[in-house]
Amino acid sequence: MTQLYDSIGTGYAAHRSPDPRIAAAIHDALGDAATVLNVGAGAGSYEPGDRRVIAVEPSAAMIRQRLSGSAPVVQGSAMELPIRDTAVDAALAILTIHHWPDRARGLVELERVARRRIVLFTWDPAASGFWLVDDYFPELRLIDRDRFPSMDEFRRTWTRVQVRPIPIPHDCTDGFTGAYWRRPRAYLDAGIRGAMSTFARIPDVSPGLARLARDLDDGTWNRRHGLVMSQAEMDLGYRLVVAELARS
After folding, report:
1. Boundaries of domain holding 157
2. Per-residue confidence at 61, pLDDT binned at 50, 70, 90?
3. Residue 26 sits in a domain of what CATH number?
4. What is d(CA 166, CA 238) in angstroms, rounded to the nearest whole number?
5. Is the residue at 117 inside a domain?
6. Confidence (pLDDT) at 247
7. pTM of the shown model
8. Do 119 and 92 meet the contact criterion of CB atoms below 8 Å apart?
9. Residue 57 contacts residue 41 (beta carbons within 8 Å)
């Protein structure tokens, strides 16, 4: 993961501005946690400003993009968090778990450091129906199917787990893969794609991009998917997983 984000993460902050609606959902999920460890913190998106936050991030390129005055950050790995047992009220992990080389170990580490709860923003690999994947980049489904944990995996790991759907608004300001579902031409922009780790894992994106560009120009995309243009938000499989720990 460190090498991936040292490569693609240099322009990350320009295209990945926290969406306030997603931020509000994360804030609500953190509940009364006064201290938070943000694991895989990146440039600092979604770090709550009303609590004490410590960030852990493996990539130097991402750390360099953190704003002045943001939470203190330690360069480190989710697989070996540099913090003592039960040191914080909550452990937070935002769209990062699919990069961990040892997911099981990382989940154990989250539970080790958190006193009350664990909050993860992730994607459900059982989700379907996104035109970008179905029509243009079906390889994304194969790439992500094993990288993202199922919701049942979380339920097997912790006893008290809530899974909350997070519909993505049509004007989402955070440029992750599903953010532009109602702005299809955005996916033709190399800068926008460069802030998405999913595209970095496709050996050759040119065939899918050529099909998308052609379909947008000749009206095929609109005939197939134009109905989405009337929707304010869409459930693309993004989820908040909230685990209440037995010791809380």
Report:
1. 2-130+139-172+235-244
2. confident
3. 3.40.50.150
4. 5
5. yes
6. 67
7. 0.91
8. yes
9. yes
